[in-house]
């Protein structure tokens, strides 16, 4: 059967050569994947997909990432207590191993990498992540 391919309306999606697979690019063919498998953030069994980015940090307030940034629901922000007992204090959005703190610094490269993975797609701004 012939089906319509899902192409997000994000302003800069046309510049994301890595999301396309054609004779000029060695991309990942995300459009075909989204059309076949969806863009939900859940695995086939319905479990939430969480991806760790090991980089210099990420802008957790970025408009194209904020809704998809992982939040440790077992922690109470700013109380300086390891509420979930995992050995890390106030690790709300991850852990800053360099500074040994739960404060995840904003970093351009880490934000770029995180956007490639999980930027919100089809919201008319920015880009679309592989798993939007």
Structure description:
This protein has 132 residues and is low in regular secondary structure. Helix content is 14%, strand content 3%. The chain contains two helices and two strands; from the N terminus they run ββαα. A two-stranded antiparallel ribbon has the order 1-2. A hairpin with a 2-residue loop joins strand 1 and strand 2. It is elongated and about 50 Å long. The mean pLDDT is 89.
The strand line-up of the biggest sheet is 1-2
The rounded distance between the terminal residues' Cα atoms is 26 Å
Oligomer classification: single chain
**CA-based shape:** elongated
Listing every helix as H and every strand as E from the N terminus to the C terminus, the arrangement reads EEHH
Give the uncertain stretches in residue-range form: none
Largest sheet: 2 strands, antiparallel
DSSP helix fraction: 10-25%
- Structural classification: little secondary structure
Share of residues in strands: under 5%
Please tell me how large the radius of gyration is. 17 Å
Q: How many distinct beta strands?
A: 2
Average the pLDDT over all residues and give the rounded result: 89
Number of helices: 2
